Amino acid sequence: xxxxxxxxxxxxxxxxxxxxxxxxxxxxxxxxxxxxxxxxxxxxxxxxxxxxxxxxxxxxxxxxxxxxxxxxxxxxxxxxxxxxxxxxxxxxxxxxxxxxxxxxxxxxxxxxxxxxxxxxxxxxxxxxxxxxxxxxxxxxxxxxxxxxxxxxxxxxxxxxxxxxxxxxxxxxxxxxxxxxxxxxxxxxxxxxxxxxxxxxxxxxxxxxxxxxxxxxxxxxxxxxxxxxxxxxxxxxxxxxxxxxxxxxxxxxxxxxxxxxxxxxxxxxxxxxxxxxxxxxxxxxxxxxxxxxxxxx
Amino acid sequence: xxxxxxxxxxxxxxxxxxxxxxxxxxxxxxxxxxxxxxxxxxxxxxxxxxxxxxxxxxxxxxxxxxxxxxxxxxxxxxxxxxxxxxxxxxxxxxxxxxxxxxxxxxxxxxxxxxxxxxxxxxxxxxxxxxxxxxxxxxxxxxxxxxxxxxxxxxxxxxxxxxxxxxxxxxxxxxxxxxxxxxxxxxxxxxxxxxxxxxxxxxxxxxxxxxxxxxxxxxxxxxxxxxxxxxxxxxxxxxxxxxxxxxxxxxxxxxxxxxxxxxxxxxxxxxxxxxxxxxxxxxxxxxxxxxxxxxxxxxxxxxxxxxxxxxxxxxxxxxxxxxxxxxxxxxxxxxxxxxxxxxxxxxxxxxxxxxxxxxxxxxxxxxxxxxxxxxxxxxxxxxxxxxxxxxxxxxxxxxxxxxxxxxxxxxxxxxxxxxxxxxxxxxxxxxxxxxxxxxxxxxxxxxxxxxxxxxxxxxxxxxxxxxxxxxxxxxxxxxxxxxxxxxxxxxx
Lengths: 296, 491
What we know:
The complex is a heterodimer.
Chain A: H1 2-17, E1 39-42, E2 45-49, E3 54-58, E4 61-64, H2 70-82, E5 86-89, E6 92-97, E7 114-120, E8 128-130, E9 135-137, H3 151-160, H4 168-176, E10 223-224, E11 227-228, E12 246-248, E13 259-262, E14 278-281, E15 290-291
Parallel strand pairs in A: 12-15
Antiparallel strand pairs in A: 1-4, 2-3, 5-6, 6-7, 8-9, 10-11, 12-13, 13-14
Chain B: H1 2-13, H2 15-33, H3 45-53, H4 62-88, H5 93-119, H6 124-148, H7 171-198, H8 217-244, H9 250-271, H10 278-311, H11 320-327, H12 331-356, H13 367-396, H14 401-427, H15 438-470, H16 476-481
């Protein structure tokens, strides 16, 4: 009997590991009260950039105070589809991108001018639904960040509205202000500050579907059904600059096809939420943990 | 007073005592600092440990802390390997005493003051002592190189069972020497950028800059340093295990030249990353790694063949069952080479697979997924080396009968469960999406935590046993005090 205990435990763990995930499990809905259409003014000037706090300078610019939401993106798709800015290609939404200069550096892949994937429609965790004529945000996700969007899809959205993706410097300055803080709100992180891996927010269930996105601006000091949040806005009033979803940035670096993301996400440990942490991926990459916001 | 003096003499003046102290130090650091990261962090244990121990840590300095933690653990492992080398190989007693004393002071200072600096407020005197400790270890390494000098006719051999030249030049000793020399030089390879980046505190973790097409010479040096040091620790433990098992015969004669060649070429390749030969450095590294790994394979073949032959000597015509039973009858002799083989499924093989399918994997995955693969890869490699040391240490403890079986198989099975699960975790993106991964991740985490957690429990039991033994007047420690590793080499 004793000899089979360990194999039995292992078998149970193995079977539990194969359990299917309900990607459409009900999600609590909350109105955060944060205006996702608002923009913050970032003044020109110096700031501390990167882990080693190099002094850099930006011009003045505006940046969205929240990530682009699923609802925003559905509106964009409807408008852009109507005027031919995007097309449906099988189970994908594609749009034109003018391409990058190619330098044939080691590991660099060429990004040519042409139609590139904006979003997949057939991904089971896609929160944008298409009924053949209209794009809508999945119920419960309208005020959540737009996810499963490629860098091209993020770039296309911002371009469509006469804005652009923020550069890495702009992104970091907007999150950090002019001091050396590692998080938008200060030096340390608590579970009530942001949506990160196993942060015990109302949207996660680590025994089944794991982490899910939270509505934009969720961590603003409000109590939601007993869940107390801390106001975690950046010095310039931006929300979700740490956690929830990684955010695409706009830089195209010479000799690299990779695009950079900032901010950490619902799926990463707190260390990745530090404002200088960089992630990157090929621009066609999409994930339920990646979104974006625009600057102008 | 005599009571304390005798124990102190055992712990710091005998090879097995020194190894016990180092294993205990590593065990304590691993147990405590393991609670600061996942899954203990998610469960809230991290905060309790930080408060209880009065740690003073901030998020912004994580990279620097981790670098000191890695060095503290690695230096203790280097010390253990050094004790094993001085206990197994002939050398002048002055060198043996000096090397062991200097490296012991070195790693203990490194560990205590390094961790003190990193986790308990930044007392810069502690940092200075930490650097002093590292310097002592370096100096001990230089002494080891001198002590191993293989051209000394005193160390020439004539036994035809072992690899040597016509003049008697001992090729196994030369392999130890080559590994020691290159380790010392490769330590410098890290010390130079360490000083460069340390002057201004611009620390970084290598896994965070892998995708940058342009890297500075110093950044390449850091990346090269961490790779080659781990490889050399792996090569050294392979040589040590070979010596303990008394590796000999034709395979020994083939393996030792390969080991020397592989070690030298591998190092040249790694050092080449900071030279104009950088574009071909990886190719040189592959060329160097191949003979080293082939030499380890020859050790495995010899070991398994010997285990089978010894275990079936009493059977006239052994069948496959008899042979398999003979192979696994002693987990402490079978385990080290098995772990070397298993390493290919969890590190080397995975690395080669990733390299072959680069366009489908790393060119597509986000950097963070690549980072998981890279850090998992070398954590497993480090931990496999640690399990091999523990298996050898089990033999040093003289475990016999059921205790030997339980100890040996527990280490092998528990660690392999954990390492296997880590490997699946690293590769999960090949077969499951991010949205659907959580149950799999949970299962893998249970397997990893169960395997590593139980391994630490076994280590704790071992250490408690050794601690209680120290209170006995005629405990095992008395026997070990006069017993050198070379006397326990397989006949």
